């Protein structure tokens, strides 16, 4: 069993925006032939999405990410998930990471519900055997019954979310990354889902949750981090950081 | 970095093996004869090309047809991979943007899918053997190391080509038209013996060597030492270049797609 840990020191993320014109090889060649006059040199515009972010998280930390849209919360989650490599600084992440960043990935519309559970499980990093052991439990939870043997192209969006939700929440995560709360279903299902989600979140050793909802942060987190324009403005207790957020927003 | 990702992907082979098989299964799930279409469309192509071109070249059909069908099946594998490499990451962008995906898992999924298709087409070779009464010799076993070496070469190209295609969107169409040109300048539909032995078309075309390597065992011949040396050398070159490109640029994929 690994001891879950995240240590970030001065991580930066510069996001190159390869826009119209810059994508093509032609412009590169013309640029080279004309000494870079036409393409304006090697000027790929860069968005600085994270700047010198440092923090460390240990077992038991449940941290809420707070900040306006575009402040860097989701980018940080993607960096922690290993999707983006930081362009500067050091990041050490120990433990199995599960992210619920996008529940719609891995849906192959012609494949059956069961096949989609397997695909998603594999993509999340489970072994085939691990998934097969859990397949019954996952299928039972979805309450989709015979639909599980039908192609998901006939599913409603609610059914698709159930499928993804059930698979993700069956994982054993050391580090759980969430961008807003996930939830699904109609009135009867939503309680069941809520219970499963809370259970899933409490099983993980480290939780990083980005949310705009004060209530959610208060309910699930014991720590908070405030982001502004890609910079970490403060780390501390939930109340303290929420207060700081309010003050800075109104200032 | 390339070695770390390669290892991780090989350990986590459940993922790409499953996805590759699923690609094949899904493509033919709603068709009546399923994956047989792969074999059938290739067979139709080989038979009609064989009938017409053996006349054009005034070649004996018993010599021409096995040559053509074997060449063409291998060409299908090579060209299929080469033309799909550049768009690999773009097509998988939904995954790449939202989950940590090892680029090698995507490369291996694509390669496995093409190898499965290729295996379906081998039926045609068996058909040609039966029809023309060819008895394969033990030399046929040499096709296995040859296939491994050629696939390694293609993967070596694929690592760089897929990265290049993700960064520059023109690379995919360029590759596709180049692949078409290579089809005509490589001895696939015509015997290499129709050209003088020192022809540069054969000498400078690595694909011509790969095809010789793959084809010879199935035609009861022995591939030249040159073909082995060239394929080995290109393999080293492609992987060295790719190791460098990958280490420098693989981290950029999620920004590019």
Structural overview:
The complex is a heterodimer of chains A (251) and B (257). Chain A has 251 residues and is of the alpha/beta class. Chain A has eight helices and nine strands. In chain A, the strands form two sheets. A six-stranded mixed beta sheet of chain A has the order 5-6-7-3-8-9, sandwiched between helices. In chain A, helix 3 packs across helix 4, helix 3 crosses helix 5 and helix 4 packs across helix 5. The longest helix of chain A has 17 residues. Chain B is mainly alpha-helical and 257 residues long. Chain B has one domain. Chain B has 13 helices and no strands. The mean pLDDT of chain B is 91. At the A-B interface, helix 1 and helix 3 of A face helix 2, helix 6 and helix 13 of B.
What characteristics describe this protein?
heterodimer; A: 251 residues; alpha/beta; six-stranded mixed β-sheet; three-stranded antiparallel β-sheet; 8 helices; 37% helix; B: 257 residues; mainly alpha; 13 helices; 0% strand; globular
Tally of DSSP β-strands of chain A: 9
The gyration radius over C-alpha positions of chain A equals 21 Å
| SSE string of chain B | HHHHHHHHHHHHH
Radius of gyration of chain B: 19 Å
Query: What characterizes the major β-sheet of chain A?
Result: 6 strands, mixed
Low-confidence stretches of chain B: none
What topology emerges from the helices and strands here?
The complex is a heterodimer of chains A (251) and B (257).
Chain A: E1 5-16, H1 25-33, E2 46-57, E3 62-67, H2 73-80, E4 88-94, E5 97-99, H3 113-123, H4 128-142, H5 157-168, E6 175-179, H6 187-203, E7 206-210, H7 214-220, E8 223-228, E9 231-236, H8 238-250
Parallel strand pairs in A: 3-7, 3-8, 5-6, 6-7
Antiparallel strand pairs in A: 1-2, 1-4, 8-9
Helix pairs in contact in A: 3-4, 3-5, 4-5
Chain B: H1 2-11, H2 13-28, H3 36-56, H4 61-84, H5 88-91, H6 93-98, H7 103-131, H8 143-167, H9 171-185, H10 200-203, H11 206-218, H12 225-249, H13 253-256
Helix pairs in contact in B: 1-7, 2-7, 3-4, 3-7, 4-7, 4-8, 4-9, 4-11, 7-8, 8-11, 8-12, 11-12
């Amino acid at each position: 069993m690994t001891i879950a840990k995240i240590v970030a020191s001065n991580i930066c993320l510069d996001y190159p925006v390869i826009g119209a014109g810059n994508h093509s090889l032609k412009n590169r060649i013309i640029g080279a032939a004309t000494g870079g006059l036409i393409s304006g040199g090697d000027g790929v515009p860069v968005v600085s999405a994270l700047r010198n972010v440092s923090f460390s998280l240990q077992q038991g930390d449940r941290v809420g990410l707070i900040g306006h849209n575009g402040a860097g919360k989701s980018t940080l989650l993607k960096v922690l998930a290993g999707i983006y490599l930081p362009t500067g600084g050091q990041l050490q992440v120990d433990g199995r990471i599960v992210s619920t960043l996008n529940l719609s990935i891995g849906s192959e519309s012609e494949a059956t519900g069961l096949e989609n559970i397997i695909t998603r499980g594999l993509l999340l990093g489970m072994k085939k055997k691990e998934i097969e052991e859990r397949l019954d439990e996952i299928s039972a939870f979805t309450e989709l019954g015979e639909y599980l043997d039908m192609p998901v192209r006939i599913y409603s969006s609610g059914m698709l979310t159930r499928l993804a939700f059930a698979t993700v929440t069956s994982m054993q995560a050391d580090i759980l990354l969430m961008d807003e709360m996930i939830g699904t279903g109609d009135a009867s299902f939503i309680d069941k889902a809520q219970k499963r989600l809370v259970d899933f979140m409490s099983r993980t050793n480290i939780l990083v949750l980005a949310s705009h909802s004060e209530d959610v942060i208060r309910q699930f987190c014991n720590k908070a981090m405030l982001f502004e324009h890609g910079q970490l403005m403060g780390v501390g207790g939930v109340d303290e950081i929420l207060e700081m957020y309010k003050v800075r927003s109104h200032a | 970095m390339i070695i770390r990702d390669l290892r991780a992907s090989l350990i986590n082979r459940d993922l790409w093996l499953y996805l590759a098989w699923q690609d094949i299964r899904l493509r033919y799930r709603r068709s009546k004869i399923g994956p047989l279409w792969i074999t059938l469309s290739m067979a139709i192509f080989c038979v009609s090309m064989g009938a017409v071109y053996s006349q054009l070249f005034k070649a004996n059909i018993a010599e021409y047809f096995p040559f053509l069908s074997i060449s063409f099946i291998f060409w299908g594998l090579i060209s299929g991979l080469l033309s799909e490499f550049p768009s690999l990451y773009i097509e998988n962008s939904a995954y790449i943007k939202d989950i940590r995906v090892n680029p090698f898992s995507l490369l291996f999924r694509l390669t496995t899918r093409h190898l499965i298709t290729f295996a379906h087409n081998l039926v045609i070779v068996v058909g040609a053997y039966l029809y023309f009464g060819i008895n394969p010799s033990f030399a046929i076993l040499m096709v296995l190391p040859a296939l491994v070496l050629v696939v390694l070469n293609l993967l070596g190209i694929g690592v760089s080509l897929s990265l290049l295609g993700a960064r520059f969107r023109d690379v995919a169409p360029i590759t596709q038209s180049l692949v078409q040109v290579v089809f005509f300048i490589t001895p696939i539909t015509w015997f290499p013996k129709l050209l003088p032995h020192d022809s540069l078309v054969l000498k400078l075309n690595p694909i011509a060597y790969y095809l010789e390597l793959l084809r010879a065992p199935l035609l009861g011949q022995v591939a030249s030492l040159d073909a082995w040396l060239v394929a080995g050398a290109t393999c080293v070159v492609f992987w060295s270049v790719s190791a460098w490109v990958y280490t420098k640029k693989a981290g950029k994929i999620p920004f590019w797609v």
